[in-house]
Amino acid sequence: MPKERADAARxxxxxxxxxxxxxxxxxxxxxxxxxxxxxxGVGKGTLFRxxxxxxxxxxxxxxxxxxELQEAVLSxxxxxxxxxxxxxxxxAFVGAYLDYLLDHLDLVRLxxxxxxxxxxxxxxxxxxxxxxAILLAEIRPGCDADPLAHALLAPxxxxxxxxxxxxxxxARAREAVRALVLGxxx
Length: 186
Description:
Elements: H1 6-26, H2 33-40, H3 44-51, H4 54-75, H5 86-103, H6 105-112, H7 118-121, H8 123-139, H9 145-153, H10 158-168, H11 170-183
Helix pairs in contact: 1-2, 2-3, 4-5, 4-6, 4-8, 5-8, 5-11, 6-10, 8-9, 10-11
């Protein structure tokens, strides 16, 4: 992959910083791409060429946080990282993913629902599914781990968590999902 030009990298950081600030202040639905371009001091064409639409911008904002979580899963300390029993790692992963999801719920929802099936095409989802499948295969040897991983991740969809948190509050939604997801694996 070619190295990003310095001016393009600066513009990207300005756009991401402006978008994060505006989304925090107004919520994702209250921010237009025009507002992001104006806040960042870049042309609308630059913004649309780089990110495509608001869901592309959301995905770019989420990318860094997802990388941090992936790094913790791959090489961080146990129980999230290697070295703990698979069931403990799965529990730690569900907790860490819920933290990430609830901290960025509007952005994750936007990126997951940009088009039908968008959630399943996102690279991060494929990573989480593979991670869950590996742990499930260790917890339940001989199970059909890949579809089981999909089923395990289904309640962690942003659209689902938005509805649950809206109706029951974040704490109850978190506990309900943890109980459902982890109760079925033991």
